[in-house]
């Protein structure tokens, strides 16, 4: 297995690590961003991951940077509490990669992918309900709503009906079983995307409360940043990117002004405490997408906390 960090040069340029500063890699994963940050400047780096396997893999990198890399097991949506327990209340930068790590995708036993058969698990932290639990117990309507809301699957009702009929005959316990059921009722389109992709995404997001984690993490990261500190986020699908874009534009004071007929337009709007580093999301270059297909859907957005003078 190999891990290729997505948009690595762009991430390091946006984060701009400097000596003696403190940073957080909120989604350690395969450690690609962390290694590059540690190499870029003699700084301190905290790294969070809810997957205990990722924390275990990070031990080798920590040993190469004694006293500089500190690994923390937990969800990045709890970063404020996790860091406070360790005496950290301010950071000079935070980076988040919202995609699955290659290790998770490539390990059949984790159940994230239908490319190879494995248990229908999808849990990032090995605890809590599994995707198999959801498939076995959700009422048909709630299952359809889950597929539509988190996977943007237009044929969610058809898929939910097929799953309910299939589970009445036998338990759906593996990724291959579920993928076959979905493919039977969802025709292929010209995109080349497997018909099961959106449904698998939806179940994974619900199992891990991914969107809730993102919303909490963004707010907490902004709270932790010192003046001049930067928040850099790489997202991989529209649901994630929508949350990140809305949060960053609001923090930078870029929300639309109220109508002149709206009384709220008569009040002074508070000065923004952040600025956008880029006018729009950055995308990976052609060379990267040709060598790493997983980068094709990546979007990078970043903001910087303003100093009191510039605010």
Short overview:
42% of the residues lie in helices and 14% in strands. The chain is built from 13 helices and seven strands. Helix 8 packs across helix 9 (175-185) and helix 11 (210-224) packs parallel to helix 12.
Write the layout of secondary structure elements.
Layout: H1 8-15, E1 22-25, H2 32-40, E2 44-49, H3 52-64, E3 69-73, H4 79-84, E4 91-97, H5 102-106, H6 131-137, H7 140-151, H8 156-169, H9 175-185, H10 197-208, H11 210-224, E5 225-235, H12 238-251, E6 274-276, H13 286-291, E7 299-305
Parallel strand pairs: 1-2, 1-4, 2-3, 4-5
Antiparallel strand pairs: 5-7, 6-7
Helix pairs in contact: 7-8, 7-10, 8-9, 11-12
Kindly describe this structure:
- It is built from 13 helices and seven strands.
- It is of the alpha/beta class.
- Strands 3-2-1-4-5-7-6 form a seven-stranded mixed β-sheet, sandwiched between helices.
- α3 links the parallel β2 and β3.
- The radius of gyration is 21 Å and the shape is globular.
Helix proportion of residues, in percent? 40-55%
Structural class: alpha/beta
Task: Assess the beta-strand content as a share of residues.
Answer: 5-15%
Low-pLDDT segments, ≥5 res: none
Biggest β-sheet description: 7 strands, mixed
Strand order of the largest sheet: 3-2-1-4-5-7-6
- Arithmetic mean of pLDDT: 89
Rounded to the nearest angstrom, the distance between the terminal CA atoms is 46 Å
SSE pattern, N- to C-terminal: HEHEHEHEHHHHHHHEHEHE
In total, the number of strands is: 7
Shape: globular
Number of helices: 13
Radius of gyration computed on alpha carbons: 21 Å
């Amino acid at each position: 297995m190999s891990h290729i960090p997505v948009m690595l040069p762009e991430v390091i340029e946006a984060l701009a690590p400097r000596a003696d500063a403190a940073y957080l890699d909120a989604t350690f994963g395969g450690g690609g961003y962390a290694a590059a940050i540690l190499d870029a400047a003699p700084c301190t780096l905290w790294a969070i991951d809810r997957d205990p396997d990722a924390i275990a893999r990070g031990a080798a990198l920590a040993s190469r940077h004694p006293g500089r890399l500190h690994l923390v097991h937990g969800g990045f949506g709890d970063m404020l509490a996790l860091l406070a327990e360790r005496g950290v209340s301010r950071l000079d930068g935070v980076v988040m990669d919202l995609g699955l790590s290659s290790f998770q995708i490539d390990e059949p036993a984790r159940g994230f992918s239908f490319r190879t058969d494995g248990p229908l698990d999808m849990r990032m932290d090995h605890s809590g309900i599994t995707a198999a639990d959801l498939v076995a117990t959700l009422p048909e309507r709630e299952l359809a709503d889950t597929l539509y809301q988190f996977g943007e699957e237009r044929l969610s009702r058809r898929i939910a009906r097929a799953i309910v009929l299939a589970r009445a005959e036998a338990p759906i316990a593996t990724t291959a079983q579920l993928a076959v059921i979905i493919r039977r009722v969802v025709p292929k389109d010209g995109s080349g995307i497997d018909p099961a992709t959106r449904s698998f995404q939806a179940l994974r997001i619900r199992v891990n409360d991914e969107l809730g984690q993102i919303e909490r993490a963004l707010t907490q990261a902004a709270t932790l940043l010192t003046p001049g500190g930067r928040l850099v986020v790489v997202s991989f699908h529209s649901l994630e990117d929508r949350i990140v874009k809305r949060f960053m534009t609001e923090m930078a004071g870029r929300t639309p002004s109220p109508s002149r007929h709206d009384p709220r337009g008569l009040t002074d709007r508070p000065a923004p405490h952040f600025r956008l580093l880029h006018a729009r999301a950055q995308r990976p270059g052609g060379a990267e997408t040709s060598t790493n297909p997983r980068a094709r859907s990546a979007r990078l957005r970043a903001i910087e906390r303003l100093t009191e003078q510039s605010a």
